[in-house]
Amino acid sequence: MGSSFQVFGIKTKILIPGDDMAEIIIDESSQAGGILDGDIIAIAESGLATTEDAIVRLSDVTPSEKAYEYERMYKIDARLAEIVISESDSIAGGIPGFLLSLKSGTLLPNAGVDGSNAPPGCVVTLPKDPDESAKRIHDKILEKTGKETGVLVIDSRTHAMRLGCSGVAIGCYGVSAITDERGKKDLFGHELEVTRLAVGDNLASAAELVMGESDECTPVAIIRGLSKYISKGSSGVGSIEPSECLFMGVAMNSNPALIDRDRKTE
Amino acid sequence: MGSSFQVFGIKTKILIPGDDMAEIIIDESSQAGGILDGDIIAIAESGLATTEDAIVRLSDVTPSEKAYEYERMYKIDARLAEIVISESDSIAGGIPGFLLSLKSGTLLPNAGVDGSNAPPGCVVTLPKDPDESAKRIHDKILEKTGKETGVLVIDSRTHAMRLGCSGVAIGCYGVSAITDERGKKDLFGHELEVTRLAVGDNLASAAELVMGESDECTPVAIIRGLSKYISKGSSGVGSIEPSECLFMGVAMNSNPALIDRDRKTE
C-alpha cells in the first residue's frame, strides 16, 4: 500500500498590511478541521508580503540612469526597473517586460516584484526574509495550538523552456526543503544518479493547485499526511552555485560574464 | 471553504518490458479504493519506458566522433553521449557528467537518458511518445472501467538555479497541462500579469511526493479531487519558443548561437 496525503485550500479575507498571518491561519484552519501535528502549511509570498507591508507606490520611486536604460532596452517602466534593481543581487539581462534577477541564489523575473493583487499604482515585493517569516508563523502556531508544523513560503515561477508557472519554495521552517538521497540504492541495487529531491518545490506546486492566481483569495494551503518531511528546527530552502547548475553552467561557458553583469558590488 | 484534493501512491511489482501499464494501474488502484471519474493518474516516465522496452544496452552502442568529443569535454561515457545525441533534437552544451539537450521544445539533462532503475549495463531512454502512451492508457482505463480520467507522464528534473529535482509533465491526455488565465482579474480588478499556470508540472510535483526515486516501486500516483483540470480529448503539454523564454532569451542575447549549436540538421 502506497502512502497518501491531502491538500486543503484555505480561503481568507482580502489581506492588508498589519494582518497577523499566524492568527488568520489558526482561525481559518477550521476549513481543514483545524491544525494537526505534522501538517505542512504553505503560504503564498504575495499574501505574506502584503501583511508585512512590502508594498511600494510607483509614484514614490525616482528611477536611476540604469533604470531608464533598462526601460529603453526592455520596455519596462523605469520606476519598476528601479525597484527590481534595488531588490536584486544582480541583473543578468532581460526580455521585453522583464528583467532577469539573481536574488538569494535564485534566478527570477523582476526579482519577484509583482503588480498583480497589489493596490492600484503599487507593486508588492517579495517578503524581506521568508525563512524568518516562516519561523515566526511556525512559532506562533506552536505557541497557540501546541501543534508541530512545517511552514513554507511559496511563489509561482516560470522555469527555463517550460510553459507556464509552477510552485517553488522561497522560504521555510520546520520542513526539509531538499532531501538528500545520496548513497541510496535503486531497484537494481546501484547508487542513484538523481540524488536530491526539491521537496519544498514539490510541496509548493501541490499547494498551488488549490490556490490559483486570480481573485480566489486562497493564500494558504494545509498539506496533511506528509509528516515524513517535517524536520524540527530546520530552516531555509538551500541554493546552488551557478557553476554547479547545468543551465547556468552552459550559459556561462558561452559567456562567462553572463551572471556577473551589473553586480551591485561593481 | 477552499477546495481540497488527495494523492495516493500506487505501489507495483518491479516493472519489466512487455508489462501492460493500464492493466497494472487498474489492478493496483484498489490501493486508492479503485479508479473514480475525474481521477488524474500520474505515471513515472522511467517505469513507463521500461514497460515499453525503451532500454539500450551500452555495449551495443558504437560512439561517433562527436560522442568521443563530448567524452573528452564533459567526462561523459562516449556510449552514453551517443545515445543522448540520438535522443536529442540538439545539444546546447554540457557540464561534467551531463549534456544539455533540447528535445521536444524542452531543455533537459542527457535527453532524459537515465541509468537509475535500469538493468545492469543498460540505460532507459524517455518513452518514445509520452502523449500517445498517455492516450493509450487513458483509453484502456475508460474501456475497462468506464471511468473518465486524465493521464500524465511525469519526470523528475532540475531547473535553472534550483537545488534538487522536482516534477514536470512530459506527456498527457485528457487533462489541461497549461491553464490560461489571460483576461482574468486579480483581487483589485486589474488584469493578471501571471497568465499561464503549468498545472501539469504542479500535478507531477504533487505526485512525486509519494513516489520517491529510490527502491520504493511507486511508479504511479492517483490524484483525486481536481476534476476541474480534466479536459476530455486534450493532449500534449505545450512548449515555449526559446525567444519567449526569459532564461533562454537572456542566454541567446549573450550568444545567439547557443541553442542552435549542434543541431542535427547541420
UniProtKB/TrEMBL annotation, chains A, B:
<keyword id="KW-0630">Potassium</keyword>
<dbReference type="InterPro" id="IPR002847">
    <property type="entry name" value="F420-0_gamma-glut_ligase-dom"/>
</dbReference>
<keyword id="KW-0460">Magnesium</keyword>
<dbReference type="GO" id="GO:0005525">
    <property type="term" value="F:GTP binding"/>
</dbReference>
<dbReference type="InterPro" id="IPR008225">
    <property type="entry name" value="F420-0_g-glutamyl_ligase"/>
</dbReference>
<protein>
    <submittedName>
        <fullName>F420-dependent oxidoreductase</fullName>
    </submittedName>
</protein>
<keyword id="KW-0479">Metal-binding</keyword>
<feature type="domain" description="Coenzyme F420:L-glutamate ligase-like">
    <location>
        <begin position="9"/>
        <end position="225"/>
    </location>
</feature>
<keyword id="KW-0547">Nucleotide-binding</keyword>
<keyword id="KW-0436">Ligase</keyword>
<dbReference type="GO" id="GO:0046872">
    <property type="term" value="F:metal ion binding"/>
</dbReference>
<dbReference type="Pfam" id="PF01996">
    <property type="entry name" value="F420_ligase"/>
</dbReference>
<keyword id="KW-0342">GTP-binding</keyword>
<keyword id="KW-0464">Manganese</keyword>
<dbReference type="GO" id="GO:0052618">
    <property type="term" value="F:coenzyme F420-0:L-glutamate ligase activity"/>
</dbReference>
